[in-house]
Amino acid sequence: MANKSVIRQVGEHVGETVVIGSWLNNKRSSGKIQFLQLRDGTGYIQGVVVKSEVGEEVWEKAKSLTQESSMYVTGVIREEPRSQSGYEMTVTDIEIIHLTENYPITPKEHGVDFLMDHRHLWLRSPKQRAVMVIRAEIIRAIQEFFNTNGFTKMDPPILTPTSAEGTTNLFHTKYFDEDAYLTQSGQLYMEAAAMALGKVYSFGPTFRAEKSKTRRHLIEFWMIEPEMAFTDHEESLIVQENFVTHVVQSVLKNCRLELETLDRDISKLENIKAPFPRISYDDAIEYLHTQGFDIPWGEDFGAPHETAIAERYDKPVFITNYPAGIKAFYMKPDPNRPEVVLCADMIAPEGYGEIIGGSQRIDDPELMEERFKEHNLSPETYQWYMDLRRYGSVPHSGFGLGLERTVAWVCGLEHVRETIPFPRMLYRLYP
Ligand code: 4AD
Ligand code: MG
C-alpha cells in the first residue's frame, strides 16, 4: 500500500502516489471522467477518475459512491493552480469502507431547525468546518498572546457556591446536600489567582440560564478571563486592544482559505489594529439622543444601542465608565465621580455587540462590605473573597472575552449558534 497522507499535506507529495482516507463531498461526471470532491477534515481535493486509465472495476466503484460514503482513495498528486487547494489527485484505486444511503443533509437549502437537529452531521459541511478551524485558531492565538506576555494560566472551578455576575441567571444544581451553581464567570477566583501569581488568565466554559433568545446569547459559552495585579483600568484597556488585535491578525495570517469559504470581507478585519476608539457612557447617551433614541441616563444599553454606537467606527470601540447601578458589585467607583465605575465594554464593529466586559476591581474592604449589602449578597459565602482585600490588597483589573461572539464577528456569522460545535441554547439541548 502507498504512503498515507492527509489533504492538508498533499503539497509535500507532488508526483507521488498516496492513500487518503476520505469522504465523498460531491461528485460530477462527464462521460469518461468522474470528478470526486473528497474531504478528510483537513481540507478538500478533487480526485479525477479516468475510465480508460483505471479500468472497469475502479470505474464502477467510483460510480457507486454516494454523498458521505467513506473510502481509501489511492492516487498521484498533481499541482493544479485552478483549484482552491492548488492540487488535484489522479485516482488509481478506491477501497470503499462504507456506502452511505440517504444522507440527510443534501446540497439543497435546509432550514435552521433541521440543520440544528443534525448538528452532528452539519459539522461536516465546508462552512461549518471553516468556522471550527477559525475558532481553533482564535483559541490558539489567545493562549499565545497571554503565554508570551507574562500571564500564567489558572483554572477556576466550574461548580461554585456563589454568583459572580448577578443572581438572576444562575444555573442551579445540587452538590450532595448543598446548593451549587454552574460558574457564570471565573473572575472572583481569578482575583485570588492574581494575588498569588500576578498576571493570570483562565479559559473555560461558563453558564448562564438566560431566558433570552437572541443571536448573541448561548446558555453555555467559553470565556477568557485575564486578571492583573498592580494594574489599573487604563492599563487594562491597552492589554485588551493589543490582545484583540493579535487574535484578529492571527486569523488573517493563518486562515485565509477558511475566511474565503465564509465569504468574509477581509478588508474589514485588516483594519483591526490597536489603538481602539473610546467613548464614555455619558457621551454615548448623548450621541444616542441625537440619533432619536430616548434612553435615560442610568439605563443599560441593549443591542440596538450598541449597534448604533459601533456603527460610527470601523474598529471595536470601548464604552467606558458606566453608571454603578447597572454594573456588577465588584467594580471600582471612579474616585472623581463615584456614580460611575472604572469599567469598559468592548463593542465589536458591524453590529456584533459586546465581546469584552472588564473593569478595575474594588480593593477597599469597607466599600466591598457595603456593596455586598446593597446587592443582597450574603457576606458569609464571600469571606474568602473579602480576604483578598484584608491581606495585601492591591489595585487590580481584569476582563472577560466571550469566545463565541468573537468567533461570530471574525467569521461574519449572523448567529452565535454556529460558532460552537454543539450549542446549548434556550430550548435546545439536542444533540
Ligand atoms: O460582561 P460579562 O458578563 O463579564 C463577566 O463575566 C466578567 N466577570 C468578566 C471579567 O471581568 N472577568 O461577560 C463577558 C463576556 C461578554 O462581553 C460576552 O462577550 C460574553 O462574555 N457573554 C456571552 N456570550 C455568549 N452568550 C452569553 N449568554 C454571554 N454572556 C456573556
Ligand atoms: Mg457585560
Concise account of the structure shown:
By secondary structure, the chain is α+β, with helices and mostly antiparallel strands. Helix content is 31%, strand content 28%. The chain has two domains: 3-98, Nucleic acid-binding proteins (OB fold (Dihydrolipoamide Acetyltransferase, E2P)); 119-418, BirA Bifunctional Protein, domain 2.
What does this molecule look like?
- The mean pLDDT is 96.
- The protein folds into 2 domains: 96 residues, OB fold (Dihydrolipoamide Acetyltransferase, E2P) (Beta Barrel); 300 residues, 2-Layer Sandwich (BirA Bifunctional Protein, domain 2), CATH 3.30.930.
- By secondary structure, it is α+β, with helices and mostly antiparallel strands.
- The two termini are 38 Å apart.
- The structure holds 4-amino-1,4-dioxobutan-2-aminium adenosine-5'-monophosphate and magnesium ion.
- Magnesium ion binds next to strand 18.
- It comes from Paenibacillus lutimineralis.
- It holds the Pfam family tRNA_anti-codon.
- It is found in: Cytoplasm.
- Homodimer.
**Order of strands across the widest beta sheet?**
7-11-12-19-18-17-14-13
Q: Give the CA-CA distance, first to last residue.
A: 38 Å
Can you give the helix content as a percent range? Answer: 25-40%
Structural class: alpha+beta
How many helices?
14
Radius of gyration: 26 Å
Number of beta-strand segments: 19
**CATH homology superfamily of the largest domain:** Bira Bifunctional Protein, Domain 2
Question: Which fold name corresponds to the CATH topology of the largest domain?
Answer: BirA Bifunctional Protein, domain 2
